[in-house]
């Protein structure tokens, strides 16, 4: 595994943890009130996916701790 791959994997793990925390504490910050927007669930999911990818892209450019150190 290359350093780039390791950084991307660590960034994805960190992004997923961040998203999990936000969704469990303040879901409205990422997805709004999905219950009242049943016709827009696909749009909300696409925005969340795009946010996750952007977060991974930015985090992979940062110095991250080794996977075992997290």
What does this structure look like?
With 70 residues, the protein is mostly helical. Helices cover 66% and strands 0% of the residues. The protein is built from three helices and no strands. Helix 1 (3-25) packs across helix 3.
Keywords:
70 residues, single chain, mainly alpha
Distance between the termini: 19 Å
Provide the β-strand percentage band.
under 5%
Radius of gyration: 14 Å
Low-confidence stretches: none
Summed up, the helix count is: 3
Strand/helix succession: HHH
Write the layout of secondary structure elements.
Elements: H1 3-25, H2 28-31, H3 41-59
Helix pairs in contact: 1-3
Quick synopsis:
The protein is mainly α. It is built from three helices and no strands.
